[in-house]
């Protein structure tokens, strides 16, 4: 295996770098074709491949990288994969790892979106079945994350307050403000918790100057895109702005991006709610990151080019943040105050998930006793019988076609 370390290279070292980039991309592609089950399952696949099999990282380094991805907004599992590619083969390794893990589901979802134009979504029972699948999947995510991130009266209280605010204040700003407020509350409420020490440093394969540039670009785009979009009234800029903002403001992974994307796409009149939830259900059927839902949405909005632009826009902030933060993480992870902030934010994520489970997912999908029975059965398949997600999606589509 290659040992590229990002330093200056002679000819033989350039070959070594190219091989390392190829390995990063090829390994990620195989994961992108087989990693079903959402962000938590992805981290398990990554651990088995990158730590156990490939030995590209040790246990402590991998745990550090996962901790950083949880601290930052964006798609957590994708950011871990990008971080592995970065520490393995530099910036090109990070790009190759992201592309390999993301491409399979992007292609499948864009094909699905193309087929959506050939029939009426409301006329097919299996489409309603896919919408019910979304209920079961998000319910499982809520319970799983609540058991880890909202334990104890204080964390549970934060989660409940966030859920109430997000449901009663139907605005994209609600998620941003509640997460920020929960982080500030965490600084005070969890101030006595001690930071973990004794962990080895992660390799800093890029310079701090490059890292600062990435963080600065993230901030400039986050602030500048809404301004440019408002001034120009250009649809392409509006698409980039909406998806970039969704990718920038999400803590907790793919499920939490749902209400942000729902607000953006429906408010702009790009999709109907039925088309939106149908695509979200289909996203559960494919491996890879849930953020590739953007490929379906972009394709529905503006064809193939729209799918590509939306995908790049929603993943770009997470990419810039993990690359920009990695060189500074070794010092940050030992700061007890920042860990307290993260604890509060994680509890807020649980509250946002609870809110998303009710609206728009439950309110648009469970409309009769039959649909409730189907949803309960799908939930049982996931939660109790440990069926693979693709089988649950297939069962939901079949049940919807036969019973609805």
Automatic annotation (TrEMBL):
Primary localization: membrane
Domain of life the protein comes from: Bacteria
Keyword Membrane: yes
Protein name (record): Chromate efflux transporter
Segments crossing the lipid bilayer: 95-117, 123-142, 149-167, 173-190, 211-231, 307-329, 341-360, 366-385
Annotated membrane topology: Multi-pass membrane protein
A Pfam family annotated for this UniProt entry: Chromate_transp
Family the entry assigns: Belongs to the chromate ion transporter (CHR) (TC 2.A.51) family.
